[in-house]
Amino acid sequence: MKVSFKRMIGQEQVKKLLSRALENGQLSHGYLFEGPEGLGKRKMAKELAAAIFCSQEDAPCGSCNACRQVEAETHAEFRWIRSSEEGKEPTVSVDMIRNLVKDIYLKPYETDYKIYVIPEADTMTPQAQNALLKTLEEPPDHSVIILVTPEPERLLPTILSRCQRLVFRPVKKEVLETYLQEEKQMTPDKAKTLAAFANGIPERAVEMLENETYQQEYKDFLQLTDSIMEKNYGLAIEKGEFMQQKKNQAMWALAFWQEWLRDLHIILMGGSTDLLVHQNQESRLRKQAAFFNENTIQTAQKLMESAREDIRTHGNLSFIVETLLINLVKLVKDPSQADQLDGFLDS
Questions:
Q1: Do 81 and 221 belong to one domain?
Q2: Domains in the chain: how many in total?
Q3: 7 in Cβ contact with 62 (< 8 Å)
């Protein structure tokens, strides 16, 4: 068997390691796919399962019955364990893991392996993680468990230590440009702009290309950055309403803020514009950079991290966003506020 994950964008190290393991019959029983959202971790989990079950010599072929069944999540020896939406927050409960454990010790009857993917592993409750631990410590020979998460720190250290950790990293800009031109038929100029804006995250590039809502949210984000520079608390909160609607929208906007602040820092330091993520917004960035110094940029980044952590721990979304925007306006109005805010954030 020859394994090549041709449909995956980038992630050459991950592809090489998994290809070699499968070709040599040395698959691990537990994998942890970690890294930022949008890099294809879940897609790779399906690609690995398809390669294991594929009936063709060059795997995964994507067209045989087994590959199609994995994609549709209907293969008899493949389990895709989604978080339950029944509570306030999505969770993988201890009962769901107990069902996995019962099933995993039953021998497969169609293939040599049974594969289990938990695509939001960080939503496992502590009890669920503990229930999974013994199986990771003493897995049956026919099993492969794949945990997927952008936040491995939310998993127990004992879980982490029992898995082979594969880190997914942002894709090189040139690789993403080529993909957008060849697979999405984009012009070179548009592909270059979108690849820079996507910051190495393929799924973001595709979503921006296809999703008008996403494009509108980007416009909202740009208007929000402008409102901060106008030093008007009420206007900033008004323009930031889109961040208060859903948790994932807020997290998306915070990621953009962090990239935006990084670009402002590059402008402040006189760095090359080739390094900018938002190259198509260079004029706006230069105007806004005048309101910051290196110290206030660092404080603003800390504010973003603090807001992200508060949202992760299920705080009041509207309060978190409004507090963030008020503090950003404070920084722009009075840079000396940086030290006071730093002290508060570090306490």
A1: no
A2: 2
A3: yes
